[in-house]
Structure prediction request, 350 residues.
Amino acid sequence: MKPFAYDRTHAGWSEWMTKQGEPAFRANQMMDWLYKKRVHSFHDMTNLSRGLRERLSEEFQLEPLETLTVQQSDDGTVKFLFRLHDGHAIETVIMRHNYGNSVCVTTQVGCRIGCTFCASTLGGLKRDLTTGEVVAQVMAAQKYLDREGGRVHSVVIMGIGEPFENYEATVGFMRVINDPRGLGIGQRHITVSTSGIVPSIYKFADEKLQAVLAISLHAPNQEVRKKLMPVSRRYPLEELLEACQYYSDQTGRRITYEYALIGGKNDQPEHAHELGQLLAGSGALVNLIPVNYVPERNYIRTPRNQVFRFQKIVESYKVKATIRREHGSDIDAACGQLRAKHMDAEKRSS
Prediction:
């Protein structure tokens, strides 16, 4: 399989061009064609020589994704199902906000973390994505938005998979989309979400990037978290919070804690009090998420009035808590649902 053009950073293109005997400025031209002009073929790169364009076509693949399905919600949310070169399917989502368009990207085909409320883990982990396969998701979203004169303002790495179990590709992706010669998406407009892979949080802190780190917490104590998130057996809550403090100390950035409210599991007043006590004084933000219904999981949603009550209790401890706005409730909203449907359909037809 040929590597993807989107796998390479500007420095990577400079190195490749030098090896081809080309001047260094060709790397700038490549970035311009890929990310500003957003061409679909190397042969469209008209300020490169024909010979160079042929070498690029021989050595690289430009389009790693094939669009299988596009769903558009009444609220403007757009969900893509893409096929990769090896036949696996992944999801990407465009979400509309009053501050701009956000794209949620996938970093793995499937997931092995095993969170009990998540559709992404159904079927387990198949493989990691390359940097270019993650970049290509943002490019596909941007090309979709080009038709309406829109642009990608921010990126959340919260799709299928655990980004910090595909660490190098994830950080490489962040550097590519942040490059001003490319899409120029600011680091503070990039959010990476992890289930709590403690060694990678320390490593990420030492990168000293200014991205938003979001922790999938979903429980106020170790006992509840172990039941919902098996990863907590390997990396206990206490160790996770120590790693988060290190990240804040190294970067000066506030941590966001994601908390999916699951009826009868982690949404009672005592859970809210415990969560407030746990995070009091940390300067953290809690993002409360009414859980999406996943047929295979059979969890129930927390009633809306109970969500507001939970928020109020948490905030009584001087911890800022927000309620995530729902996107795409009339389509396959939960991460992994569209892929799961596709996998079921393929099984039935085989």
